[in-house]
Amino acid sequence: xxxxxxxxxxxxxxxxxxxxxxxxxxxxxxxxxxxxxxxxxxxxxxxxxxxxxxxxxxxxxxxxxxxxxxxxxxxxxxxxxxxxxxxxxxxxxxxxxxxxxxxxxxxxxxxxxxxxxxxxxxxxxxxxxxxxxxxxxxxxxxxxxxxxxxxxxxxxxxxxxxxxxxxxxxxxxxxxxxxxxxxxxxxxxxxxxxxxxxxxxxxxxxxxxxxxxxxxxxxxxxxxxxxxxxxxxxxxxxxxxxxxxxxxxxxxxxxxxxxxxxxxxxxxxxxxxxxxxxxxxxxxxxxxxxxxxxxxxxxxxxxxxxxxxxxxxxxxxxxxxxxxxxxxxxxxxxxxxxxxxxxxxxxxxxxxxxxxxxxxxxxxxxxxxxxxxxxxxxxxxxxxxxxxxxxxxxxxxxxxxxxxxxxxxxxxxxxxxxxxxxxxxxxxxxxxxxxxxxxxxxxxxxxxxxx
Length: 451
Description:
451 residues, alpha/beta, nine-stranded mixed β-sheet, six-stranded parallel β-sheet, 16 helices, 15 strands, 17% strand
């Protein structure tokens, strides 16, 4: 189907109209490859990138075909150097605030791929200027930030997308269709996790060392809203995920991928309780870093026609327990989930990889596959771009990706109070049985930074 803009609209009128009409789901967007060759100037979007090394480089490469990359911003010139070289026509910046001051009228959409602790300030700066936003997961660094981004995106009516690419995959749709078909009956328990270790525990003793800030890095801008602390190479370029002030550990990095299928299929919503456990970890002395391994148990209340559900999350050195239904000679899930129903078990991998299978295999062979009922997409970035052009809604917009991220943020708070079963009131955004936990819902910002 055609997504072309009516010729009477200018590109700017078009993008403004798209941002003001976020409503319908885009059914089948045109192929990205075709668009890169066909896109008329009136349909090209002017896109800026904030955080364009690492994952950000991949994001920019994915949204560049058929569009204009007009500005790039990164505080680490070494990490982002390749992206700046690849797009020499894009205006370079270190401070996204200066970028918006100078380029606001030239930008239609923004890709945010900074470390977790600066997601919210960068995304909010774009949203308040009416820019469409693609933000890497997790959406933010606290529950409060998640809620504020969701509210602002709705108020400014911009098209948003969380960077959990598996949401646009075939596998997640297959899983949903099977669950809704009753393939394993009523789901009651989920065991999910990721074996990656994102922890700074081993590096804690090294923080006493003093290091000069590299000339290629603006440390003050890299810190952003995080409270002041000296530079240390233990934090970056890639290890920041293991540190509480900057990242959200393995749980924050992977819940938006691994839990996405069950979140969608079962309409999980917010948990009512959270219980975190971790071996060989003391939050009072090691709380600046995440544990190497953990288990977090979330209890979700009954909703609609489904009953209550228990979700057990396992990170790092704490493996997902092998499902009883899995044959002895089959490889267990390491990053993914086992979903237990009263009539069977489904296993799946993350990112849309690893497939979706009923176990044991004999039951898979007996199952009559249902018809495909969900719309398919042709890529996560393309889903966002087509939603902007059509005035539609991306599949994992902040209204969806925000509550999904919030589950991880609640688990992170659980690490501060190991062994305490926290009771969460999502509507009031507070814990009802532990005042100490409420201080972590909206941690303080460094002076000079705000949403």
